[in-house]
Amino acid sequence: MKSYLLDIRRLVSRDNNITQLIAMTAVIFIVMAALNPDKFLRYYNFESITYLFPELGVLSIAMLVALLTGGIDLSVIGIANLSGILAGLFFHTILSSAQSAGGGLPVVIAGVLLSLSVGLAAGALNGFLITRLRVTPILATLGTGQIFTGLALVLTGGPAIVGFPAAWDFIGNGKILGLATPFVLFVIIAAGMAYVLSRTTFGLSLLLIGTNPKAAVFAGLKKGRMIFYGYMTTGLLASIAGILLSGRTNAAKSDYGTSYLLQAILIAVLGGTNPAGGKGTVAGISIAVIALMLLSSGFQILRFSNHLIDFIWGAFLLLVIAINAFKNRVR
Amino acid sequence: MVLFRRSETIIATILVLAMIAIGLVNPAFWQLDNMFSLLRSNVVIGIMALGVLMVMLSGGFDVSFPAFAVASMYLTVKGMLYFGYVGVFLPFLVSVAIGVLCGCLNGFFVYKFRMVPLIVTLGTGSMVRGFLLGVVGTSIVNIDRFPPVLIEFAKAEVFSVVKSDGTHSGLTAMVLLYFGLALLVHLVLRHTMIGRSVYALGCGAEAANRVGFNLKKTIFFIYCSAGALAGFAGILHCSMIWLANPRDFVGMDLEVIAAVVLGGASIFGGRGSVLGTMLGVFMLVMVQNSLIIMKVDTTWQLVVVGIIIVIATVATAWRDRKRQA
Asked: Is A248 within 8 Å of A55 (Cβ atoms)?
């Protein structure tokens, strides 16, 4: 009976957080719309947002999984770029030998599988370092992130890889039933991850381990193995983000999206994730990413430079920290 | 036998072995020129590493110092040009002061809101760099406009050798500044109350508090000193390369953190020393420098640095576990 009551209270407080986020999104929307209605409120603007935000959203969910366990993953950008680049190189070798311009669907599917397995392997390396060799997540992923980015640089030699097949382009720029393909993929991934994190043994184990690692071990959870799988999931999601990124830009480069790391962490924190572990939802992340995309698109329309937008992201992160701290004190 | 168990001894041993190995591959490594340029490249990254060491000793993590360094350097040089100021002392003071101000921001957020330092410094770093590039400007101050006083200052040499073919090579006097600062940080950390409180905080915040340390003072001291060192490193850097580029130091955070970890500092805090950090910095700079000497393609640099970080962290994790057992 008591646990049932607790459950309801948790649900309400979680909804509170999400209500706040929705309110914040609405405020951003109204302010941006008021500042520049004819440009901000165009259909084109929202359509371009649905193409842009999924890669950042998937990266943030990847970060969420790592944060839930009480760790962090600084190598997600490296994983994303490496998997995009390897897929690009794969297409180059296959297509130049087969002489079939455009590239068939099977080739693209093979490329996607290759990217995903790169993500899984990279995540497994992180997981191995963290659970087996007991390296702190920050340092382990810092080092592997350098290695992944470095390998990407070695493979490309610096310039971007271009010329992906048409079907790959479809992943980043196509439309399904009038909706952007990346957006559809994001909805599927977010729903899937929400299910995994809240309804499966694996997801609940991650939450419990993040809440209290010691108690989780005494409760009989296989802590090491679960965290290992957690980092593999993070790697997999990061490589999906890499596919979306290289699909949209039709290119892959070793230093794409370096500012995404800060943004992914910011979105995770803004979405109610506790960096100490154990707390965070996919729903929160999804709303936070939309809020921030509205914010940044609004500032872009107002002709703010990209550097100033970086400044605003940073200031926003600090502001969110302050607000969260204030909220916790009141409670 | 205590000497053998200290991590500094182990690092120094590895360092000497690595130097011998590199010297065997390419004897040019041991030339005076190369040694001088090695020491020279230690200066800026070493001074930054001292700041990172202090943060790491307290159990924190700082990724904002490259932004602070570049901001203090660029603002100071811009200011010198604007006012037409000629002199060395004041610019360094201003640069350090800007660093301290930025560091205060970190200290405020870490202390007041008890937020994970990594996330705070990610935010402040992005803010400071965004402000610098977005508001102050993105243009590089090139050698034709760069204040000559600073160039003259950084040209000073401890001693120089004129070789038989007439070329001359010298050891920059900036090395003395680096060693002096290192000695200062060492003395403060080992022999003052505020220095001991940094270690205490790193070993356990609650315990440090109960013993009677003022954590607010300690945290502000740590982050302001780290900012000051970053500011000093920034202005020294631009004086040594004769130009001020507001996009400098990107990605430097990982490099410096790697050096500090390599030097045996524990990320959980409470463990690490100035000597170890200096050895770690030397090791990292030497490896990067020697890749070129050993004719390895420069694109491999990131991979090698990454592998070094992983090996160093695995080794320290293994050491920590063994001690606990």
From this structure: yes
